[in-house]
Structure formats: structure tokens, C-alpha cells
Amino acid sequence: MLQDVFNQPDEERRATAIAGIFSEDVVFRDAEGTATGRNELAATVAGLLAQGPGLVFTPDGPYRGVADLGMRSWQLGPPGGATILGGLDVAQVADGRIVRLWTILGA
């Protein structure tokens, strides 16, 4: 699950989750730019976590998908608190791993 990556403050656990979910050459795109590969993704996630310590991503609605594409809305906020930001993740999967992930803010 993406929360196992984007909510994980422990670097080793996050790296293990990334290796299990994402392809080696994953491409992640959001409003801030593009990260290519697991190492860049890990650095990007570390930066996101540093921007909002104590905040967590939670799914907001069901997973939806067709063929190799999937999407899910999410919310960001303190555990049990008000939503600060929402968005939508769109993922392309190949061989059981995410190869491309787009994050759209405010969706």
C-alpha cells in the first residue's frame, strides 16, 4: 500500500516498502517535479515527510482501476484531525509493481 511508503518515517522500513511496491526504474511525478528510480523516490518521500511531521496520508474513497491503471483519492492531515490537503494518485502497474505514479493535488 502507498501509505506504507508515504507514511513511513523509518528510512529502512520505507526502503523495504518501496522495493516491494515499486519497480527499480519507477517514475514519480507531482507538482514539485519528477523522481526517477527507487532512490530518488525515497529521497522525495523523505522530503515530503519532513515538510509535514506528524501528518498522515489516508485513503479517501475506494480504489478504482482498469487494465494496468489504478487510482485512489487521499487526504493529508493529523491522525484523527481535519484534512489539510487532498489529492489523487494515479498508478501504472507492470509485473505486479508500480512503474509510474502521478500525484495530483487538490483532486
From TrEMBL:
Please state every residue range assigned to the domain named SnoaL-like. Answer: 12-100
SUPFAM superfamilies this protein is in?
Answer: NTF2-like
Q: Name one Pfam family in it.
A: SnoaL_2
Q: Please report the name of this protein according to its UniProt entry.
A: Nuclear transport factor 2 family protein
Organism whose genome encodes this protein: Nakamurella flavida
